[in-house]
Design brief:
Number of strands: 4
Radius of gyration: 19 Å
Number of helices: 10
Shape: globular
Distance between the termini: 43 Å
Strand content: 5-15%
Oligomer: single chain
Helix content: 55-70%
Mean pLDDT: 93
Low-confidence stretches: none
Length: 242
């Protein structure tokens, strides 16, 4: 398997050749930047910041993006430099995660000196957690008699819920570990809910093991309970707290 960092560097170089000085910055973020990428599972997340994004620019960028996606990668994330400068009140969770773990591929570091407003972070976490819980309930409803689908559902949803655990730690003013297992352990102590279910799903996911779980199993119960308790914790924070 190719080194994901080198693959991302090749994409960045190709876009730098295509756009020249118009490409202001490119960086690698997500599980690869945290050193937690799982071969065949984790996406290679690349952000590219340009001076402008219009239909002609997107057309020029399309062939490289299609080849990149055709190789099984998540589509690169394009933004303009000006959009990025005003993004912290909308994408606070993502920007905070990027700030803590990213690898520069090209240009200046757009995360240097970045400040994420705590109020914006709380509102985003509250809204997205509730939405993710609704998706989890819907998924369990439809997959209630299919143990393999339940296992797949929990594994796929885990990175999102761990992202919200990181957000909860930030909102509480706690240090945020890089590694997933440490995040789960620290955050579950904070929100006062056991983390065994998340840890079991995380281990299976990292080892490439498929889970086959009854909907009434302790793992499903514990997973669902932690997701709900995290949402309650974030909901309980007043604007003064956050």
């Amino acid at each position: 398997m190719e080194d994901p960092k080198k693959v991302a560097e090749e994409l960045s170089r190709a876009y730098a050749e295509l756009f020249g000085e118009r490409l202001r910055s490119a960086l690698l973020y997500g599980s690869v930047a945290r050193g937690e990428a799982i071969g065949g599972v984790s996406d290679i997340n690349v952000l590219l910041l340009l001076d402008r994004l219009d239909p002609a620019t997107l057309r020029a960028a399309s062939p490289l993006a299609r080849r990149w996606s055709g190789a099984g990668n998540a589509a690169p994330l394009f933004m303009t430099w000006d959009e990025w400068q005003s993004a912290s009140d909308v994408f606070g969770i993502e920007l905070a995660d990027m700030r803590d773990a990213h690898i520069m591929l090209h240009g200046s570091d757009p995360l240097a000196g970045l400040e994420v407003e705590r109020r914006a972070l709380r509102l985003q976490a509250e809204r997205e957690l509730r939405g993710k819980l609704l998706q989890l309930r819907e998924g369990l409803l439809l997959a209630a008699t299919d143990g393999k689908e339940i296992g797949r559902l929990l594994a796929v949803a885990l990175p999102s819920f761990v992202t919200y655990l990181r957000a909860a730690l930030r909102l509480a003013g706690r240090a945020v570990p890089i590694r997933t297992a440490a995040v789960i352990e620290e955050a579950t102590a904070l929100v006062n809910a056991p983390g065994d279910a998340f840890l079991e799903v995380a281990r299976a996911r990292s080892e490439g093991k498929a889970l086959d779980l009854a909907v009434e199993s302790p793992v499903v119960d514990g997973y669902f309970a932690l997701a709900e308790q995290t949402a309650r914790f974030v909901d309980s924070l007043s604007e003064d707290d956050a």
